């Protein structure tokens, strides 16, 4: 017997923790079964992406010849999986197909009515359910075995649909560690889970449906994190819904990774900022720059909206915490906003945007409400005048407060924020440009209008082209400041990229060959500006750095790409006095 656990991820760099956990748990538990222990190859994993041709996936599954196929379903892949299921049912009508995951758990009966090719749905967490199904399939118990299995909805041989009770929450510490063979995850993000469930009741989130909050044993977590540290894994992304909802859990893990850090691994956590206490803040403040990054869901700063969506958040407290962390300069912060929430029209959303933008996070995510099946938000959609797309991701179209015209406008602003703010490639130019507008929201709104006028939206522009477009926007609105902004754009460009081909927008290069020759000659002897380049000669140093003259400062600035900021990857910069260049006898 061969069972295929298949995942269709959003990107190649993603991995699906769920299917690895199902396989590992079943194999570990079956050690006690003796007769039911899976043989080598009986449970097979397959990961694909939504960017692949469906025919290629269909052919791959067919060639694997599984006896049973199971698919992991999420909001981003449900349409894709359903199409695959329909075609698989035609070419393999003999093969039972099972689905699992959050996108099918809360309307499992409707899923079976809609997809006649599907035999059953695993509801909620699936490790224990899948292990039990494995035994039933091995023993060929059929519907009789399925009838006594909790956590599933299935179709009987006579076509009737049976909805069994949900399964009780399991002990999270019993799930085996799935990353012993890291070669399977090369070039992919490593996801890790130290808790399940969420203590909050946000109306748009399915985590609010399941209040069964539990934690993996902290000692076990420490040993597994040590494995990642020892192996030099670049990033470990915790999938815990609110990592710091229990202080002792968060403190112990943060202290551990701080103490055992080897300067390589980055850990990503989704947290509630206003829950952080003084001890946690002090631990974070003393961490190596780049050791952790924090994702903080603010969603809205409107108190009426926060109450309506059943969130518990004090924005003033969040603001103080985010600002404190930001000033320390060692932690990447990612803040989230959601457009389309109740009691927030475009003007109130603009205020939320400006208040969160003023915190200057490394990333600002402008997302749109997803009306998930089974959520409290779905129950309230009529009272909110909430219309959403019928197919995944069920994104908002309009509400009583927000028209579809407003949504279109915000979509354009979202693109501008992603291109110009979240890329972190225009930081100094944007800081200066914001001063010319009443608000940050207005700046990105005007940028969006400019893109619309020029027909530039939705196009994959080269990086240098984005600079040129921004300069064109500036020249149109502030023609007398062209030279000033051109230099800021040039500074931003070289701050991130050691480009040897000068972009057209930067204009004429103002550093003479003579100055370059004598500067790097002096550095080869004295290492005044490049002390860490001891083993490099003048030619090597020149290739690894860039010098630029800026009229706005009257200084030469050196960009050092060997010494980058670990938080934002910006080059180290230093100003070179003209007197230093003239002090060399060779240049007099």
UniProtKB/TrEMBL annotation:
GO molecular function annotations of the record: 4 iron, 4 sulfur cluster binding; cobalamin binding; coproporphyrinogen dehydrogenase activity; metal ion binding
Statement: the UniProt record of this protein carries the keyword Zinc-finger: no
UniProtKB keywords: Iron, Iron-sulfur, Metal-binding, Oxidoreductase, S-adenosyl-L-methionine
GO cellular component, one term: cytosol
Stored PROSITE patterns: B12_BINDING, RADICAL_SAM
Keyword match DNA damage: no
Assigned EC number: 1.3.98.3
Cofactor(s) needed for function: [4Fe-4S] cluster
Name the UniProt record assigns to this protein: Oxygen-independent coproporphyrinogen III oxidase
The organism of origin for this protein: Clostridium scindens (strain ATCC 35704 / DSM 5676 / VPI 13733 / 19)
Gene that encodes it: hemN_1
């Amino acid at each position: 017997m061969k069972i295929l656990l298949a995942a269709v991820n959003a990107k190649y760099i993603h991995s699906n923790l769920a299917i690895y956990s199902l396989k590992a748990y079943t194999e570990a538990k079956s050690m006690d079964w003796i007769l039911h222990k899976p043989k080598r190859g009986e449970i097979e994993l397959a990961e694909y992406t939504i960017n692949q041709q469906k025919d290629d996936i269909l052919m791959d599954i067919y060639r694997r010849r599984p006896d049973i196929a199971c698919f992991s379903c999420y909001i981003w892949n449900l349409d894709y999986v359903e199409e695959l299921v329909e075609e698989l049912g035609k070419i393999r009508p003999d093969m039972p197909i099972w689905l699992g995951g959050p996108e099918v758990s809360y309307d499992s009966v409707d899923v079976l009515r809609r997809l006649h090719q599907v035999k059953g749905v695993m509801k909620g967490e699936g490790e224990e359910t899948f292990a039990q199904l494995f035994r039933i399939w091995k023993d060929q118990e059929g519907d009789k075995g399925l009838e006594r299995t909790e956590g599933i909805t299935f179709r009987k041989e006579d076509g009737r649909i049976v909805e069994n009770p949900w399964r009780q929450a399991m002990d999270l510490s019993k799930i085996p560690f799935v990353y012993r063979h890291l070669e399977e995850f090369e070039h992919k993000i490593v996801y890790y889970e130290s808790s399940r469930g969420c203590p909050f009741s946000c109306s748009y989130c399915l985590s609010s449906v399941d209040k069964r909050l539990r934690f993996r044993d902290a000692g076990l977590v420490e040993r597994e994190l040590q494995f990642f540290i020892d192996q030099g894994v670049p990033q470990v992304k915790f999938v815990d819904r609110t990592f710091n909802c229990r202080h002792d859990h968060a403190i112990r893990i943060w202290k551990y990774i701080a103490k055992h850090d080897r300067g390589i691994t980055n850990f990503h956590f989704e947290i509630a900022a206003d829950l952080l206490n003084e001890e946690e803040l002090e631990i974070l403040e003393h961490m190596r720059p780049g050791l952790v990054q924090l994702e903080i869901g603010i969603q809205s700063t409107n108190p009426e909206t926060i109450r309506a969506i059943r969130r518990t958040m004090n924005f003033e407290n969040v603001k103080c915490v985010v600002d404190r962390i930001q000033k320390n300069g060692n932690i990447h912060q990612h803040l989230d906003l959601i457009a389309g929430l109740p009691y927030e029209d475009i003007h109130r959303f603009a205020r939320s945007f400006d208040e969160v933008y003023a915190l200057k996070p490394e990333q600002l995510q402008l997302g749109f409400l997803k009306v998930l099946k089974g959520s409290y938000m779905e129950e309230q959609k009529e009272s909110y005048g909430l219309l959403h797309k019928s197919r995944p991701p069920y994104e908002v179209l309009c509400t009583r407060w927000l028209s579809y015209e407003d949504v279109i406008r915000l979509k354009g602003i979202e693109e501008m924020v992603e291109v110009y703010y979240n890329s972190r490639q225009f930081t100094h130019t944007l800081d200066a440009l914001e001063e010319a507008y009443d608000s940050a929201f207005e700046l990105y709104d005007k940028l969006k209008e400019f893109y619309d006028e020029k027909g530039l939206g939705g196009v994959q522009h080269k990086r240098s082209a984005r600079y040129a477009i921004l300069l064109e926007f500036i020249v149109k609105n502030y023609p007398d400041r062209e030279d000033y902004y051109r230099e800021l754009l040039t500074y931003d460009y070289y701050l991130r990229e050691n480009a040897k081909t000068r972009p057209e927008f930067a204009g004429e290069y103002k550093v003479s060959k003579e100055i370059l020759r004598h500067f790097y000659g002096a550095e080869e002897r004295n290492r005044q500006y490049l002390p860490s380049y001891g083993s490099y000669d003048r030619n090597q140093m020149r290739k690894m750095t860039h010098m630029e003259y800026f009229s706005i400062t009257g200084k030469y600035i050196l960009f050092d790409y060997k010494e980058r900021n670990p938080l934002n990857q910006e080059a180290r910069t230093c100003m070179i006095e003209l007197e230093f260049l003239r002090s060399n006898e060779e240049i007099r």
